[in-house]
Amino acid sequence: MKIDPLSLILKADFEINKNFYLISGNEDTLMNKIKDLMINKIVEQDACSIEKVKDIKSIKNNVGLFERNKLYIIEDISGVDEEFLEANKNSDDFFLFISENSNKIKFFKNILAKSQDCVVFDCYELSKESKIKIIKKFFQKNNLVINESVFWALVDKLDNKYMFLEKELEKVSELEITKLELDELNSIISNNSVIIEKLFFQLLDSNENIINSFNKKIKNLTDVNHFYYFTKQFCYLIISNDNKIDFERSVPKYLFREKNFLIKIFNKYTKNKRGDLVDLLYKTEKTIRENGGLSMMVALRFFFSLKKITIS
User: The whole model's pTM is what?
Assistant: First the structure.
């Protein structure tokens, strides 16, 4: 069954009563939020040990007498079928599948979505209605007052990607005020996201132009994160689509003006170069984890490496 991921975020008493959970979609910052919440809730509720595995074939069923229940975090949902669900639906273990949308997972995702023993969280960019719910909950939780005009200004200003919205709301909570006024709102939240996203479309520019634009447009770590996740989104589109037609269909509609550029980039990628792109993403994510976060230098190095793969 499908459940709105906001239910997990907004409801403190969200009940963990299934063995199987799938986090999917194409908004990876929301996927990461749901993943963290699910892991924390399951471990807190059942004191499970955590084991990360590639797929269900990697799961070993040799449970020892004194071994704790397990939470399996599974990267690849291929191989999941009704037989697997039936065999494990009464298990003391939990199975958390995490997989971005692609043509390769459609069949397996449908199996999980139709099962009453599984919860599917589909994570996409936040709609206006979703942002309204989050903002209202935030102001209630923090005992803050906001008038109607400032409220709607906040709805318009906040990003549609969950992580960036959450970070902007954290700025509001740090003000230590009881009522948010428009001047304060404008001082801490800017509409810089569109400008930052346009940096990606300079991928084929000279290194000098890229550095100049980066220095002008990237003002803080929130901007760095926005730039990185926006760029990573298109890397995933290149990796997960095998042909030009599927790629065209996957390009967000609001980028119709940039569609020809994106197709031009896609056409440069062979199977081997897609493999290089996967390696780049893996190494960058590893660096981010080791450094405790993303830095401007890491983001810029990632972008230059992406350019090198693209034009090679």
Answer: 0.65
